[in-house]
Design a protein that fits this description.
316 residues; 11 helices; 16% strand; Rossmann fold; 38% helix; two-stranded antiparallel ribbon
């Protein structure tokens, strides 16, 4: 996906990611399959009972495994073993952070940037009065709605789909959906910034800051490594391309990343940055570092905008 920034929006010049059929959209199905596998593990870190239904409903992924026993080499498989476990760990860590943040700050509006097939509005135990705004392209949200409607799924918070491409005027679409920039917000950008040019990431983070009242919180994921192509022959990338035809390196923005955590700190936010392996050790399961590791540069960043004497807890 080729993009540039125009007036604060992330604007595309070449698109090959319609819905969940190809390109970046298909990565939402990859994450859904990983969450399904995680759900059925005996030592599961996160539960998503809806995930396997997305995988089965999409022609692009209908033949993918949704349980580890469907994978002949199990955890030794770089894609459905190690990489899927990474997504399971990420799901658990971000679930915990969102719930901790809304409970600690009293924030009741949550914004999922590039929500994809996220089902947190249905899965998590939200405090009363919580509103989850899901921003993504209309095609992606329509696919998700169709599957969830078939399952007669019931949301556990007020759920507000915001069908807009982040390359368009998503701020207006969000405020028109009832979002209140004067109230604290918990933001999530999961699996999004990898695909954005550096200038687009900078613009997005600045916009989140502008729309965030005191007491807001933000979690996002980035890749911080000098040369993204250094791991182009890693088992994870090769296996993902060979088994399901997703060339992640073709989708990732390859230019040097901005220091968004430092930018937020300059604007008064407190930030903390972790590797996924920090949480592997914390939870006692998950991916560990390996040679030629495509996960080596992945970082999870958590930020809080102060409002007074209290602030959200750090991830646990």
């Amino acid at each position: 996906m080729s993009t540039h920034v125009d007036g604060g929006n992330v604007v595309g010049t070449t698109q090959h990611d319609t819905g969940v059929a190809s390109g970046v959209g298909t990565t939402a199905l990859l994450v859904a399959a990983a969450r399904a596998i995680e759900t059925h593990r005996h030592d599961s870190l996160a539960q998503d009972a809806f995930a396997e239904h997305f995988v089965r409903a999409a022609p692009a992924s209908a033949g993918w495994p949704t349980r580890l026993e469907h994978v002949p080499d199990g955890d030794a498989n770089p894609l459905w073993g190690r990489f899927a476990r990474y997504f399971g760990l990420r799901t658990r860590v971000l679930d915990d952070y969102l719930l901790t943040s809304v409970r600690a700050t009293g924030a009741r509006q949550i914004v999922l940037l590039g929500a994809g097939l996220d089902t947190r509005a249905f899965r998590l135990d939200w405090p009363p009065g919580s509103v989850v705004h899901e921003i993504d392209r209309a095609e992606v949200l329509a696919f998700k709605h169709e599957v969830l409607d078939t399952l007669q799924a019931t949301a556990r918070a007020a759920r507000v789909p915001v069908p807009v491409d982040l390359r368009a005027d998503w701020v207006t679409a969000l405020t028109d959906s009832g979002f209140d920039p004067g109230a604290p917000t918990v933001w999530l950008a999961e699996g999004l910034l990898f695909y954005l040019p550096a200038a687009a990431e900078t613009s997005l983070i600045a916009t989140v800051n502008r729309l965030s009242a005191g007491g807001s919180a933000l979690a996002y994921e980035v890749k911080l490594e000098p040369d993204l192509m250094a791991h182009r022959d890693s088992p994870l990338y090769i296996s993902t391309n060979a088994q399901i035809g997703i060339d992640l390196l073709d989708l990732f923005a390859k230019e040097p990343r901005p220091d968004s955590a430092a930018a937020l700190t300059d604007k008064g936010w407190s930030t903390s940055t972790y590797t996924p392996f920090d949480f592997t050790h914390r939870h006692g399961r998950g991916p560990l570092p390996e040679a030629n590791d495509a996960l080596a540069g992945n970082r999870w960043v958590f930020a809080q905008k102060p409002s007074g004497p209290t602030s959200p807890s750090r991830p646990r």
